[in-house]
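Lab notebook, design round three. We kept the backbone fixed and only want residue identities now. Task for the bench partner: fill in a sequence for the structure below.
Input structure tokens:
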């Protein structure tokens, strides 16, 4: 898998017609420093200095429109953003007890989702949401949720 750098994100924004400000540069640096991360807008806001909330949201939306990050729902909490997958689409399994996130190839869940969706006349965008449950450790007998 190719590592996405802050310069890649900045170049992508610039190529999509966005002006590169110091705030956008900081956000790109933060996101590129978390290649496996799933960050909420609040996480991004906490990770940058002197950047207001509306700038964080506008920049995340611009990065998403440019195809550089993806927005997903990780269960009951706020949506999260992560770098767009260079190695292909994937899906997320999220443990509702400990918060562990596992990326799995979309092809592993595609057949089942497509079968259910087709039987109900739907076309599903599965990459936008996560499958929530419990990881092996948290599902073990005697384990309590946090």
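Proposed sequence:
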């Amino acid at each position: 898998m190719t590592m996405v750098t802050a310069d890649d994100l900045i170049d992508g924004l610039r190529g999509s017609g966005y002006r590169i400000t110091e705030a956008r540069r900081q956000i790109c640096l933060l996101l590129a420093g978390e290649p496996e991360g799933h960050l909420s807008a609040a996480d991004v806001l906490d990770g940058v200095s002197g950047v207001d909330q509306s700038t964080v949201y506008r920049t995340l939306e611009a990065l998403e429109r440019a195809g550089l990050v993806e927005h997903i729902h990780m269960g009951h909490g706020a949506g999260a953003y992560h770098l767009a997958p260079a190695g292909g689409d994937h899906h997320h399994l999220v443990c509702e007890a400990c918060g562990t996130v596992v990326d799995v190839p979309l092809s592993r869940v595609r057949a089942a989702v497509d079968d259910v969706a087709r039987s109900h006349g739907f076309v599903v965008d599965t990459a936008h949401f996560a499958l929530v449950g419990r990881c092996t450790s948290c599902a073990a007998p005697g384990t309590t949720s946090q």
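Keep this in mind before ordering anything: The longest helix spans residues 53-65.
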